[in-house]
Amino acid sequence: MKRRSIGFLAIITAMMLGTTGCAALGSISHLSEAIEDNSKKDGGVTEDKKDSKDKDDDSEKESKSKKSHKNSGEAKETLMVYMVGSNLESEIGAATTDLQEMALSGYDADDMNIVVCAGGASKWWNTSVGDDGLSMYIMEDKDIIPVYDMKNENMAEPETLTEFINEAKEEYPAENYSLILWNHGGGAVIGYGADEKYGNEMLSVSQLGEAISGSDVCSDGKFEWIGFDACMMGMIEVADTLKDSANYMIASEEVEAQDGWNYSVLGDITENGAYSGEEAGELITKAFAKFYDDTYYYVPDYTLSCIDMSKVGDVTDAIADFAKKADGSLVKGAYSKIARARDNTKSFGNMGNASLYDYVDLGCFSREIAKVFPDEAKNLEDAIRNCVVHNMTNVSRASGLSVYFPYENLDAMDKMVKIYDKEKYNSDYISFIHDFKDTMHGKDLAEWTVAKDDPVAETSSNTGYSIQLSEGETENFSKAYSSIWEKNTGDESGESYIFWLDSDNTTLDENGKLSTDFDGRIFYLTDDSGDKVPVFAMQTEAADDYSEYVTQVMKGGVFSSDTHNVNIHFRVDKDHPNGVITGVYRAVSGNGLDCPEKKVDTLEDGDPLTILYFARKIKFNDDGSVEPFETWEESSFVGAQMEIEGKLGVSFEKPAKEHDYIGLFSIHDTQGKKHYSNYLDIHVDGEEGNGMSVYDEAFADE
C-alpha cells in the first residue's frame, strides 16, 4: 500500500453514512445488437442510440407491425414485467441490462411470453424502448418489439398498471400469469415505482393493491406469483395487501444491490417446467443468492424470500394478538421492555448506525419479544415459519418478512405514521403503533444525570471502564456504545480528538453498573503490501455472535474530478475475529428520492484512497469540567492518501505501541434520546511510544 500524508485538510463528514453508488454502462441500439457474449450486468455495449429523426422515420412501419406479434397460441405462462426505469435506467442503464439478460436467458418462447411495459425514465440506453409515451413490448428474437401504445403514461398511477395487465392478458393468454414489478421500492410506508418523468411519483402499497386486484387477471383468478425486483418490499403489509391477488410473492426485506435479480433463471424456469409459484420462487431465490456469492469479492447484503400468500393471514393474526397484548401492557409499565426488544431487532435500510425506514425483521422480533410475551411470540414465529417457504440471504437474523415498527427515525416518525395509517394494514397493530409512539414521545420516564458522573477504570482491566446508573436510568436503558478517541497532535490548541471507534461492547448488570470491555483494538485497512492505515469505525449492528461496523473513505485523489465517498462495511465474528470486509458501497448525500438506493462500488488494485478522519474539539465549562459531548466542535480532516496493492482487507487489532485514549459512553434510552457521559483517560499498553497518535505513526516515514 503506497501511503503518503497530505496534511490536515479540513472537511465536514457526516456520521450518518449513506449506502448508494453508481456503475457505468455503455449505450446500445436494439437489444439484439448488444447481447453477444454479454455476461451478467457487464454492460458490454458500444453503439450510441439512434437520433430522434431515425426513430420518426421508422415510426409508421413500427405501428403497422404491432398486431402481427399477437400470440396465436396459449403458452404455459405469461410473465408481465412492469419496468419503471427511473434514474436506474437514465443514469446507469440498469433496466436495459436486465432486458438483455432476460433475452439471453435461454427461456422457451413457446412456453413463456415475456411482456414488458417500459417507461418512467428520461433516457433509455437502447432504441427498442421509446423515450416518448409509454408502450407495451413483447420479447422476441432477443429483442423487444412494441405491440401496444398505452393510453395512460404515468407509471405511478394505478390505472396504468391495470391497463398493462389487462392488455397483456388479452394479447398473450396463458395457463398461468406472473408479474414482476421492477424499479425502486420503499416498503410499506414509501411504496413502489418512482416515475422520473412525473416528479418521481410512486404507487403506495394500497394503490398497488388496487391496481392489481382490479385487473382482468384477478377478476378471473389470481397471479401465480408476484415478484418485486425492488428494495425492501418483502414486508407483511405488502403481502397482506396482495394476498388475494397472487398465490406467492417474491421480494427482498433489505435494500437490493444495484444488480437486482438474476434473470438467467427464466431459462431454468421453462427448462424445468417450474410454473408454480413455489417452484419458481425456489429457482429465483437460489439464482439470486448464487449470483451475488459468485460474482462479488465483497459480497453485498442480500435477502430474497418466497411467501405463501395463503398463510399471510395467519401472520397478520399473530401480529394482531401481540399488538393487543402489548398495547394493554404499555400502561402497566412494559413500554421499556418492548422498546428494548424492538431496539435489539434486525432492521433494514440502515444508513450508518441508524435506520431511516424503521422496517424490522418479524422473525427476529418474535425471538426478542419472547422475553416479554412468550405465547404471542411463539405463535408469531410459527406463523412466519409456515408463511416463508424459501428464504435466501447472507444477512444474519433475516427470516424473510419484515414489518414497520417506528422507533429510530425520530425526525420523520409522525409523518411516516400518518402515511402508514392510510394503508390500513391492521387496526390492532395501528392502535399499538400510535400508543407506543405517544409513550415514546411523552414525558421522560427517567431523569438522566449520567453526564454529571465520571466513568471509572475497571480494576480487572487496564482499558475497560464503567459507570453507575440510577434505578430509573437502568429501567429506561436500551443500549450503549463505548466511544474511543485520541488526542489529535496536529491541533495546536490541544483540544481536538480523533474518533476511532463506537462499539456496542457494553453490558449492564442487574445493579445498574454499565461496563465496557474495550481492549485497545481499532480498525486498520490493509492490502497485499502488508502496510496498515487506521480508520474510524461505527458499529451498525450487534448480536450475540457477530458485530458489524462501517467506515467511510474517499475513492480517488483529493482534487480528482472522479473522487467520491465510499462506505466500507466490516464484520467481526468467530470465523473472522480480526474482521472481514463484507461490502463496499458508493455513498451520496441524497438521491432526490424517498426510497433507498444501494449500489455496489469496487475497491481494487491500483485504486487511490483518501482517508477521512472524524475529529472534534472538546469544550470546557468555566469551572474546567467538560461540556456535553454533543456540544464538542467538529474538526474533521482528510489526512492521508494511499494506493491499493492487490486486495484490500481489514484488521481489528491493538496498535503495536502504547497509546493514550479517552473513552466515554454514548447511551440510548428507550425513548430514543441519547446521553453522553464524561470521558475517562485510558492507557493501552504496547511497545514504548513517543507520544505519537495512531495516525502519526501510520505516516511517520512519509
Describe this protein's structure.
The protein is an alpha+beta fold and 702 residues long. Among the domains are: 184 residues, 3-Layer(aba) Sandwich (Rossmann fold), CATH 3.40.50; 128 residues, no CATH class; 124 residues, Immunoglobulin-like, CATH 2.60.40. Helix content is 27%, strand content 31%. The protein has 17 helices and 35 strands. The strands form six sheets. Strands 1, 18, 19, 24, 25, 26, 27, 28, 29, 30, 31, 33, 34 and 35 form a 14-stranded mixed β-sheet that branches. A nine-stranded mixed β-sheet has the order 5-4-3-2-6-9-10-11-14, with helices on both faces. Strand 24 and strand 25 form a beta hairpin.
- The low-confidence parts are 12-29, 34-68
CATH topology tier name of the domain at 74-257? Rossmann fold
First-to-last CA distance: 13 Å
CATH hierarchy, class of the domain at 74-257: Alpha Beta
Radius of gyration: 27 Å
Using the alpha-carbon principal axes, give the shape: globular
Which second-level CATH architecture of the domain at 74-257 applies? 3-Layer(aba) Sandwich
Find the structural class using helix and strand composition. alpha+beta
> Largest sheet, described in full?
14 strands, mixed
- Number of H/I helices: 17
The overall strand count is 35
What's the helical proportion of residues?
A: 25-40%
**Mean pLDDT score:** 87
Percent of residues in beta strands: 25-35%
